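Self-study notes.
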Amino acid sequence: MASKVELTGPSGFLPDRIVHLHPTRLCNLACLHCYSTSAPLFTEALDANVLCDALGVLRAEGYTQVSLSGGEPLVYRPIGRLVERAKELGFRVTMVSNGLLASKRLGPMLPLLDGIAVSFDGLPETHNAMRGREDAFERAAAGLAWLAEQGAPVGAAISLTRDAIPELPELADRLVELGAKALQIRPVARAGRARTLAPSTFYDASDSARLYLVALALQMELPETRVHCDLAPAQGLWAQRDAYAGLLAECDDYAERPLGELVNPLVVTDTGDLKPIAYDFDRRFDIASVEGLSREALRDYKRDGVAGLRSLVGAALAGMAERTDLVDWFDHCARLSEVTAVAA
């Protein structure tokens, strides 16, 4: 087992040091807004042996949670082995699934999972249109209910277009009735396949304010349910800028600091690239490859490559100082990475 580095204090705006792991883009759906452009035709997948080895390296770099996504993680055949290895290494393990295969494939893994979220895009008509399948909502809801019946720590990951915002209160009530213990709410991001959607899909400042206020109301109306909105007041982010002290503070030798203190979340894409913050972060900010990943390779990145990320995050935070709107921070940084890369 790899050595572990236990860190205290914040790293980015997250409570845990998270590895978002996408072992495949294979999916049983081809959702219109999928940020990873996953679909049934993408059959390639990362080697489980490579991933298990890489997880040992990342645990030693201070990461504490593995969040499995995709593609649909339940169509990745070695998913059980990956979960078992992550738990052996001491990770908390969570998963985001479309829910269609929950009752068929999740059973043996449930005791090992610290959380599972089933994804939703609105009420049935909206959800089914976005997922391209007439029974998508029915099956996802059945999957959530089955997980709740098993006593699993289940919640819902909700992504909404601007037109679906009015559906959120009823959707939240339905999901809580089915057994969801947590709701994570965010606007659809302009990433992956969503880039082909109409401009009216995406939010302006007033749309963001509406979603944020509905989420706040749900927090009060559903006191037994953990409700989180990915939008945050820019001034609040500025006030919490010390969360990035590990990355932004002056340091004589970044190479000796755990990666989990500098980059959080860390994303492993289906092509094996390690990226900071978001799946679609511009490739110029790539950290390393999962193939043959070593602490030496990460030390090289911390010595020679982290400066670009420091500059981007520092500029993004500085930009919050005078703003009075709401920001989806991780998506904001991803979009800024595209602009920065073009400028470079």
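Second protein, same conventions, sequence then structure:
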Amino acid sequence: MIVLASTSPQRRAILEQLRIPFRVVAPSYDEVGDDPVEHAAGKARSVDAGTTPVLGVDTIVVLGGAALGKPATEAAARSMLERLSGRAHEVVSGLCLRTQEWEELGREVTGVTFRQLTAAEIDEYVAVGEWRGRAGGYAVQGFGASLVERIDGDYLNVVGLPAAMLLRVLANH
């Protein structure tokens, strides 16, 4: 059993898919800056679960060295998708798994390449609304899969949880 310090439905779905028993506790942590490892640690450290391991995760999209956050408006989502069109970018996740006795931190990077998108395709994607609350303005596990040409690395990392890393850390504890 672990405690997931996140309200993300994607992270819950991945843990269920992997058959890792968990319960959810919303973290009380304010994200400042762009370091996903720092944010993952802050989320995990904000939850006291005693001897039960607490999992904190944060994911960002990086294009040309610049972090793309979660777009606040349709116009911002459209702009992000235009920038990502036809280009490779990185999905970077920070992971923190901790108890009172130990803490493991890690960073996972997955390469994603978007195909060249037309203005009409971007407009259609933005109209669907899937971009809301998503780093980089897209969700690869949904209609956003139509935007992607290639993924190099952990697909579940792009969805929102670096599963291979989590499984390695759990196996060591």
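Instructor comment on the second fold: The chain is about 30% helix and 25% strand.
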